[in-house]
Amino acid sequence: MTGPSTQLLIDGALAAGGAGVFLTINPATEEPLGVAADADAADLDRAIAAARSAFDSSGWCRDTALRVHCLGQLRDALNDEIETLREITIAEAGAPRSLTFRGQLQTPVDDLEFPAATAERYPWRVDLGVAAPMGISTARTMVREPFGVVGAITPWNFPHQVTFAKLGPALAAGNTVVLKPAPDTPWCAAEVGRIIAEKTDFPPGVVNIVTASDHRIGARLAEDPRVDVVSFTGSTATGRSVMTAAAQTIKKVFLELGGKSAFVVLDDADLTAACTAAASTVAMHAGQGCALTTRLLVPRECYGEALDAVSAAMSRVPVGDPSDPKTLCGPLISGKQRDRVQSYLDLAIAEGGMFACGGGRPAGLERGFYLEPTVIAGLTNDARVAREEIFGPVLVVLAHDGDADALRIANDSPYGLSATVFGTEDRAALVASRLRAGTVNVNGGTWYCADVPFGGYKQSGIGREMGLAGFEEYLETKVIATAVRGS
Ligand code: NAD
Predict the structure, then answer these.
(1) Ligand 1, CB cutoff 6 Å, lining residues
(2) What order of strands is seen across the sheet that includes strand 293-299?
(3) Fewer CB within 10 Å, N- or C-terminus of the chain?
(4) Which residues does the Swiss-Prot or TrEMBL record annotate as the active site (predicted)?
């Protein structure tokens, strides 16, 4: 692995961090990997000033062709260095190698094409025609414009996916950006900064990247009056703080938050196929995915059979070194996260549940923040482990008494990010239509795609990322009403 960038990107130049450097840790070994630039408040201030000036004073926000050109350059340059980025992502995020060919890296890089193409064909000005409101004959034009400066705050679990799902549409729409990545995965973001500085024509200040060990740098970004939009992905608890901070200046808040998504198995489904799909979904990347289905709802009469099927499938999930191409479940991101997940396993037992499989450290993996894929049984949807996001390879299996009861349980959650239904087509479609969630997979279909808007109901967020809706999140609406003379 070549040495990754340890610099910030501010006003078009790579720079050292005012607070020095901080350690990055390999979650698979618990050993330090190296250091990353540690931004301080002065660095953030310069980054926001640069983004503000680039928006207000350069032609970036009006030059669609330049924006499409720069995003195309970025995609090509990222692809040129994809093998370096892959090794960094595996080492720093503990992302299984197989996932870097899909949603962890390659797919979001390729998906930069979508917002660029959307900007090229977007109806920036729409003629609303002539009308005579209050007797005044008027020609009306609706104009869509970028907001200004976007403060993007990202988590560690899918660092490239979240970064590009924000940078792509925000920049294509004509905004400038200050990106504040999670302290656990600074290299993934810093490498993007280096590539932008070295290999693209983005004007200075259009993209600024500040890696920082201190979460308060994110808080400052959210409250700064020079920032017009906060685009945040992370936990619901932090999202609440971001919303509060942003409220002081009434800035637009876009939130992609946590989930406790339901996997509903109807009584006419292929139980084994459904349980196998549920197991591999929740164990993927050690369960560190916001939209993973972490509650499995099965018909009460086959609860025992379902437990056996899902436990057998969980036990077959390849757990271990994320650099091994066969691995599906790597380590958790940190010791703190492993302790947090472990505390939920302890809670499951305290709440009267039991482990149908897993519950401990995988055999032969003495180092690294690993946890066995675990199935919790014997609880109802009232249990805290069935209501709160655990963010580990942990599946809670619940019994339901038919389609209506399954819907009631699935929707009885503070979250509403995603869901899955397995069953014959018509019944599954009816259940899907009544689930209170932003995306629903049916019988193994998948929603994830550049043109599909993704986001949550309820406490899973506000707004949509990706797709046309994700592009329009970064646009203001203006109407110009011109009196028609002589009418
Ligand atoms: P987190 O909320 O702890 O941190 C997310 C980011 O917010 C980090 O960059 C962090 O430094 C920053 N931050 C922390 N405190 C802040 C504050 N007060 N103000 C502003 N910024 C602050 O989340 P995490 O642990 O990095 O990521 C895991 C969480 O992210 C899970 O809850 C997961 O469900 C969620 N997530 C959601 C989606 C989605 O699209 N809905 C996608 C990925 C992850």
Answers:
(1) 153-158, 162, 180-183, 215, 218-219, 222, 233-235, 238, 241-242, 256-259, 290, 389, 391, 417, 456, 461
(2) 354-357, 374-377, 394-400, 293-299, 261-265, 418-422, 439-442
(3) C
(4) 256
Say if CB 310 and CB 356 are below 8 A apart: yes
Do 226 and 374 lie in a common domain? no
pLDDT at position 2 over 90 = no
pLDDT, tens digit, for every residue of 362-401?
999 999 999 999 999 999 999 999 999 999 999 999 999 9
> What tokens appear for 222 in the block?
């959210």
Please state whether 271 falls in left (phi above 0), alpha (psi between -120 and 50) or beta.
Answer: alpha
Tell me, what's the pLDDT at 5? Answer: 77
State in Å: Cα 92 to ligand 1 middle.
17
Instruction: Please give the residue range of the domain that contains residue 384.
Output: 262-442
228 with 191, same domain: the answer is: yes
Query: Candidates 22, 38, 215: which one to mutate for ligand 1, based on the most atoms within 8 Å of Cβ?
Result: 215
